[in-house]
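pasting for the record
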Amino acid sequence: MTNNFNISLEIWESIYATDYALLDTPQEQIEFLKDLLIKNKENIIETEKFPQHEPSIVQLTNQINDEFAPRKPTEKEWKKRWNEVIEDLAPVYSNQRELAILKDEQELLISKLEKVRQENEHQLLSSVENIHSISSAENTHSRKPHIFFIGHQKANGIPKGKAWINFKSLATESKGEKEIEIQEFGKIYLKRDSSDLENTVLWLPIKFESSKDGIPISKTAFDKAYDRHNTDN
């Protein structure tokens, strides 16, 4: 088992480790590992179709004795036949070994996937906590993405209603997966709130992982920010 697992590690290092290290985000790492798991599972299913059963020594001994019955073979005849039977079983041993390696690879990939998911979840929680912490400060309205978006919309003479429509369009384009850049604020991810598509946009500094993710920006908050925004500042 340990030897097979070491082989799995060697396979990872020689084939996948370099490409994995070049991935930029946890989400890319997750997708990479999920694809490998699917392919590896397919290989396991195919390998399991090949002969895997290995007869016991007693069964093999009885088989050979039955072949020579009713006479008793010479020692040379018996050893020759034994070697032939073992040679015939070589594909079975090979299938067993390949299957064991594939299963160890599956365990390795699962462990890596769980690790990166936990790290990503921790990063997401930390980001959300930081955002909420910023939002609780008295002067944080200037740190929110829609404030910067509104500033540029008003500077271009875009009325309030149209500005909100434009903001929702960005959320539709992003879908929580595509990075959107808000001038002077930076790159973020936006998403329409499925429970309130017309009146709420969600945002995060990283890709959305579930339907529960996202910091809400309501139309009411957007409109108030538009009304109080001073383009002379």
